[in-house]
Hints:
Keywords: Cytoplasm, Protein biosynthesis, Pyridoxal phosphate, RNA-binding, Selenium, Transferase, tRNA-binding. The protein is α/β, with parallel strands linked by helices. The chain folds into 2 domains: about 95-330, Type I PLP-dependent aspartate aminotransferase-like (Major domain) (Aspartate Aminotransferase, domain 2); about 335-470, Aspartate Aminotransferase, domain 1 (Alpha-Beta Complex), CATH 3.90.1150.10. The chain is about 50% helix and about 10% strand. A 7-stranded mixed sheet has the order 1-9-8-7-6-2-3, with helices on both faces. Helix 9 (about 235-245) links the parallel strand 6 and strand 7. Helix 6 runs parallel beside helix 7. The longest helix has about 60 residues, at about 445-505. The radius of gyration is 31 Å and the shape is globular. The model is unreliable at about 500-505 (pLDDT under 50).
Amino acid sequence: MNRESFTAGERLVSPAYVRQGSEARRSHEHLIRLLLEKGKCPEDGWDESTLELFLHELAIMDSNNFLGNCGVGEREGRVASSLVARRHYRFIHGIGRSGDISAVQPKAAGSSLLNKITNSLVLDIIKLAGVHSVSNCFVVPMATGMSLTLCFLTLRHKRPKAKYIIWPRIDQKSCFKSMITAGFEPVVIENVLEGDELRTDLRAVEAKVQELGPDSILCVHSTTSCFAPRVPDRVEELAVICANYNIPHIVNNAYGVQSSKCMHLIQQGARVGRIDAFVQSLDKNFLVPVGGAIIAGFNDAFIQEISKMYPGRASASPSLDVLMTLLSLGSNGYKDLLKERKEMFSYLSSQLKQLSEAYNERLLHTPHNPISLAVTLQMLDEHSDKAVTELGSMLFTRQVSGARVVPLGSVQTLSGHTFRGFMSHTDSYPCAYLNAASAIGMKTQDVDLFIKRLDKCLKTIRREQKRENDESGVDSEKTEDADVTEMALQLDNALLGTNTNQDSSS
Length: 506
């Protein structure tokens, strides 16, 4: 309702009451105006009534919601199910145009505004999380792997002679397939073991650059967030190598926004060397459904090139999800989640350490990994590989999701490349282990329940191993008794044979 509507309403209801309602509406509109003027995430989260008012105001700016609209094109925002329309808040046209995912749509001003605001808020949050010098970003309706592929395809036009991507090994299929899908040959750099940690082999990276030649290399593809005992790549040092050899650098920061350490690595890498773009998942960092990612960087022109590489229009759902989430949380709410995650990491670490020592295992020392932890499974590994994988099954059937058990010697072939010791990020890690991660949104009760169920599983396995050992001990005693009896019979027969021969000769 505008001012004229409220004035008209005063003829029906007491002007004092109408003015009070008008002031209440203006308080909602004030928040919306500040958002549009500043383009930053509000400090305090909005209530649902303000958020829904804002979304409704945007939606009625799209042509499919115009009263009396007459659409005669092939794509006019028609939706058969009203439930589907409500699910999307009647944003039907999506975002972007055929030539640029960030472009404005003439017949979808509301959706276009939603897209611009979302990108602006996400940029603000990335700065808040630690990458202060980031210049541009955009939300893309693809998960991390395909978003990395989009970055590689954009670089193809800049480096037409390139055919290789230098990639410090991380055993995650989508990372590897993102390079294959883009049409490049991954050059796998094995990690080096330092204590319990698997770290970037910088000498091997530089030696491979010199061997292949910089012009034949599309980029270095590094990783921040990962499963322990692997730790984030030495991003700063890799950025310096890339700058020295004039090679692009793409960083897979999948769930690194929630980690100040991962974000600091990217910020420092851009300061001392070269980082062209870094990619992060929406669902892992912002507690929204799977299906979106953020491509960000320090060169505004290059990020715009990536957005123009996306073919066709795109779904607005990931943008809408993250916009609603950030406006609901506010920057203070998101900072609280980041703080809570750090606290949960310390709590999970202490609880796993205590439990592991009770079973003569140990928490691997991986201080450079700020999210993931690993506990040795030597008591299972010494028994059999089957016992290790059985623990994973036991946890899953007890509704523990996300925990990973990593046996020794697993082999996986991806697009013709064979990875030995797959899932452990190296050919031969010294022991089998169990992974658990403290990700954003984890609560104390999640940790307590996980520890309780893991303890029960380990106790069950220990009892089973003891029973099998006892049974094998009884079997070995029976075997020994049988062997002694057999030896005694053989000795008796031998003596009987000797006596018989002596009687015959006499």
